[in-house]
Amino acid sequence: MYSVDHPAAARSVQQSWDLLAPLLKGGKQFAFGFMNQRVLLNSSLVTSTALTHLEVEFTKREIGVVTFLAGVELKDFKRALALLTTRPSVIVERGGLKRFLGANPLEGVRVTPAAKPKEEGDIVDVGMDMESFLTAQAILGPDATSPLEALLETAGAKQLAGTSMSPREMVEVAEQATRNTVPDPDGEISDLLMAVTQMLSGIKTDSLLASLPPEKQADLRGHSPGVMAAHVIEDAIAGWAAERLSTPTGAGGGGGDGDGPDRGGGGNGRGGSGTGTGGSAEEGSGSQAVVEAEVIQALLRGLRATRVAERLLEKLGQFVEQANLPKEIYERIRREVMWFTLPAEKKLAQLLNQDRYTPQEFSRFVQYVQEAMTEGRTSEASEAAEHYFSVLQKASSATRAEELKRAPELVRVLASMQTLPLLHTVAESLISEILEETRLHWPCHLEATHCLSIVAQNAGRFEDFDFVYKVATDLKRSLSRNPPQHADCCGKALAGLLTSEALERLIESFLQRRSDTVWVRTATSLLTMMGSLGAEVAFRRLEEEPAASNRLPLIRLIRGLGPAAIEAARKRLSDERWYVVRNAAYILGDLGDPELPSQLRGAVRHPEIRVQQAAVTALLKSNAAGRGEILAEALPHLQAGVLELALEELTVLKDPASVQYLEALFGGQGEYKTGVLEKAVIALGAVPTDRAAETLYKIVADATKPLLVRRTALGGLYNHGSAMATGLVMRLDKLPAQDPLAVEMRKAP
């Protein structure tokens, strides 16, 4: 019924988030979906008939399972809801769920498409012994997808209907599925390992061993299918990594769709996926750095699944040696993977023992802080961050500028209610850097303003608006020293202190605390300093506000934003909703838009009388040049009541440009009441031009016009200020003797 961002949905969304957040603590994840007419909750299938409607909605959108990962944030949760509630027709138009989500990637949320229904006559090889297959069917249901079928799809293989696969072919499918999964940052190697284990469990041990290379048979003899599956996957990962390292400038490297390196190497800086590229950049070429970072992340995903770092690295070393790759490449990768396996306390000790960080070491630093925050070890994350920023203050200006350039990445992962005091301390040092008058170091100043903006954004997410206001005030103070010089640093930072979501919460807080005059001034000032974005969010809230008691305070708030709200109001004059146009017209009038007449040209002609009233009222309150002509040309479109108001204003304005439009009221096809025509004549009489006098004469001489209107025109002509008026009065002697107005003129003294 409502969008995720609609105020009416805010409470439900927040309640859902409050229930989900505790489930994700401690590095856990939460999976929810539908499978075989049951509800999937993590690894459990539950029978439930109360969620049939939701299951239907999932099916329409091809959604199978939605998994919320540990560390997902509220903004990502909301974005996921917004995408998953997209109309099914839109998802179909965009090429289906997979392509739709590919064009709109989600952070912290994984969506697994539903299995496609099988067509009649399809034959599927179950890929396991019948006893295992029947057991799986008893748990999952008759429509469950077999592990082999899922692997075939991942591997891109086409199994002939009714044809059994040999153990060797099954291993090859597992290897190819791994090679297709490992380049994908979203690829779930843990799920792949489970599927391969289930598949190998259905093969006799002797047959499986015989399908492996001779050197592997002795090592794996006597081991469980799970260990064998792990070895198969590790071999495939190590082989893929060696091949990828051999082709650093390639575009595919063995991924199934060819886009693995771009996606793996680009990253977003979270969890080390993006920052690792910077670490290798000092030690190798740019393209090699990207490839190494991609390989590292692939190895870490494999390590999370198999949990045996030394074995995986040993296999990689063998492949690297066979490919004749430089040993230092392997050593760099080995150091990164082994860092991943260190206990948290050893990682922290190493980080706190350093006073300079290479890009690669900084990547580790951010990764550690993010893991600590995700696992609830906020004090450890804060300790590490405090150390980093304390060291930063002691560095030289050039070094400090470089460190400040990457500090926002660290600040972003520190976002939490528990870290707000730390961020306040960080902000104090950044503000001192920005306001430094005696020895302004421009590179440091530029990076400090950007970092301070990120600090304020974090605070805004947790509604620490008083702190954000202080930061905004200091940035404005810096900007005022030399606005042109500081436009791209302080000005840009000031405009980006709060995200749209935080601004929405600020406006909500304003409404809740509008009886607090001090807070009202603070909120209004903060929104004003946010500029056009603040005004835009305030207008959106006004448009969607269901409570009438809140709309007037919102209008007052927007008026208080001053010139910053003008552009946002202008945009709404073309809105299809009449009440939006009405509010915009009122607000533009109160804000004193310098282009008000031209901006309201369309609003005064709006078919809704309430919009006309607002537009005409705004024009009446303004002193903008040209408003008389705008009012006059709109006369044929104005409805009763508004028309009289406009004519009275034209009488006061005495604008010569209005004469031609006033004439049109008498010569057009419209039917006007006598009172309206009389007001139009009075407006004509107030304009001291010859053309106005001629028009009055024509009205007096036209016997078809109402006598009251002609009599008013005669009075206006007698008292007209133009040079031509006297001569025109003398020509009235030629009126027909039987004309009622002529009779009145003869009787006059």
Report the major sheet.
5 strands, antiparallel
Approximate strand percentage? under 5%
Radius of gyration from CA coordinates: 37 Å
How many independent structural domains? 5
Q: Which regions are unreliable across 5 or more consecutive residues at pLDDT < 50?
A: 124-144, 250-284
Taken from the alpha-carbon principal axes, the silhouette is elongated
What's the total helix number? 41
Task: Write down the overall mean pLDDT.
Answer: 81
Q: Kindly, what is the distance between the CA atoms of the first and last residues, rounded to a whole number of angstroms?
A: 76 Å
Adjacency order of strands in the biggest sheet: 3-2-1-4-5
Assign a percent range to the helix content: 55-70%
Number of strands: 5
Structural class: mainly alpha
Q: Which helices and strands appear, and what pairs or packs with what?
A:
Elements: H1 7-23, E1 30-35, E2 38-41, E3 44-46, H2 52-60, E4 63-68, H3 74-84, H4 88-93, H5 97-103, E5 109-113, H6 130-140, H7 147-155, H8 167-181, H9 189-201, H10 205-210, H11 214-220, H12 225-246, H13 260-266, H14 275-281, H15 286-306, H16 309-322, H17 327-341, H18 344-352, H19 359-374, H20 378-394, H21 397-413, H22 420-434, H23 442-461, H24 465-481, H25 483-495, H26 500-512, H27 517-530, H28 532-544, H29 548-560, H30 566-571, H31 578-591, H32 596-599, H33 609-621, H34 627-633, H35 642-653, H36 659-667, H37 674-686, H38 690-701, H39 707-718, H40 725-730, H41 740-747
Antiparallel strand pairs: 1-2, 1-4, 2-3, 4-5
